[in-house]
Design a protein that fits this description.
Layout lengths: L4 H6 L12 H16 L5 E5 L5 H5 L5 E6 L2 H7 L7 E4 L12 E7 L8 H11 E12 L6 H4 L17 H10 L2 E7 L14 H18 L11 E8 L1
Parallel strand pairs: 1-2, 1-4, 2-3, 4-5
Antiparallel strand pairs: 5-7, 6-7
């Protein structure tokens, strides 16, 4: 399936409100906090797989921002969201930038879509300057509640997720590309329901509270197994 307008209307973005203070907004805010905390303000930042531009747009006040995506439709839409960002149509596996161009690279829920994710991570290593920061997120095969969901687990619901791998493999790829992981954590259990016959609203409150607290406070404290996503922050050696 191509990553076109139809994809954005039928998968990740289908039930997402772009309104301020939505779950989607809080998620992007959290990643923006991580970028500012681990990156040096005023330097070059690249978001790979920038989609509609809502994350990179939050970072325009802190970095010289660049956005890349294979989806021309999404890039066109993102021009209205991230107005100060340089937009480039490119594959994550073939980045059109010189070695060591960026001090911060964000690739949020992209690698699982790639036929050669190891190539993309190697490319990120190439374009990241020594001492630069990588922020990567992908579905977490080590999620503690994944067995409860079975085939209904969120990572299996998108047919374009063709590269689901255990955390150890992602971390090995990052190390192979010259990165040293600084923080490896998760984002909480936000894919309710997990238990039959219990109202979904109650489960969202119970299971989602830790992840919500982490997102609001900007303090990454959830162990890797305590959530549906692997989030890794690494430094280029």
């Amino acid at each position: 399936m191509p990553f076109d307008e139809n994809y954005f209307s039928t998968h990740t973005y289908k039930d997402v409100s772009f309104a301020k203070y939505s779950q989607y907004w809080w998620s992007n805010r959290f990643y923006a906090i991580m970028a500012r905390r681990y990156g040096q303000r005023g330097t070059r930042l690249l978001e790979i797989g920038s989609g509609l531009g809502h994350l990179v747009g939050q970072l325009e006040d802190s970095f010289q921002t660049f956005a890349s995506d294979v989806n021309h439709w999404a890039l066109k839409r993102s021009l209205n969201v991230a107005r100060q960002t340089s937009h480039v149509a490119s594959s994550a596996e073939e980045l059109p930038f010189k070695d060591g161009t960026f001090d911060v690279v964000i690739i949020k829920h992209v690698v699982e879509h790639l036929p050669r994710p190891e190539r993309a991570i190697a490319e990120i290593g190439r374009v990241t300057a020594p001492g630069g920061t990588l922020i990567l997120a992908t579905p977490n095969l080590s999620s503690l509640l994944k067995p409860w969901k079975g085939e209904r687990w969120i990572g299996y619901q998108d047919p374009t997720h063709i590269a689901l791998k255990p955390p150890e493999e992602w971390l090995a790829m990052m190390r192979g590309a010259g990165f040293c992981p600084l923080r490896v954590f998760s984002d909480g259990f936000w894919d309710a329901p997990y238990i039959k016959f219990v109202p979904k609203s109650l489960q969202k409150l119970f299971f989602g509270a830790p992840g919500g607290f982490q997102a609001i406070t900007g303090i990454p404290f959830l162990p890797l197994k305590w959530g549906e996503s692997l989030i890794a922050i690494a430094r280029k050696e």
